[in-house]
Amino acid sequence: MTDTPTPEQSTPDGAEKQPDNGNAEAAKRRRQLRETEAERDALRAQLTAQRRSLLEWRAANHPGGPIDPQLLAAAGLDLDDVDAFSIAGDDDTEIKLVGDTGVIDLEQFDVFAESVAKQFNVTRVKRGPLPNPQQGNPGDKPAAGWSSIIKG
Asked: Rounded to an integer, what distance in angstroms lies between the CA atom of residue 133 and that of residue 126?
């Protein structure tokens, strides 16, 4: 007995065994390659969008005060290509926004943002915590009590 399936038997994946055809195999590999490349490009676009969103959020909510993303672009930061970004900081240390693991280093971004603020002579105002209207009376008016409701 042989281990090769006969024409009546199907292969383990359920498909009938096709005669070997080099052109068909090459076409199959090209199709798989195109699908893989399309998936890779979609994932790259998604990662770029997430990184852009994170850095724009951090610029708007920076601990030292908000920074306009246009200033970051003027300083040489392309939010769509942060992998390749590297610049010398104030003390000539290299600032790389993306670490060896591929994760954005927000501490390095903060250092870069501070250097951009100094470079463009931007005075930023630190924002305090925003009041939460659900926590107590945020206005100057006294809260309505039972006596004002009954007199009403």
From this structure: 21
Q: Which amino acid is at 97?
A: L
Q: How many CA atoms lie within 13 A of 1 on its CB side?
A: 2
In sign, the C-alpha dihedral spanning 57, 62, 66, 68 is: negative
Q: Give residue for tokens 């306009």.
A: 68
DSSP assignment of 84-125 equals T-EEE-TTS-EEESB-TTS-B-HHHHHHHHHHHHHHTT----
Q: CA-CA distances (angstroms) from residue 23 to 7, 13, 26, 30, 41?
A: 22, 22, 5, 10, 27
**pLDDT per residue as tens digits for the range 141-152:** 666 677 777 775
Instruction: State percent of the chain over pLDDT 90.
Output: 22
pLDDT digits (tens, 9 = 90+) for 108-122: 898 888 888 888 888
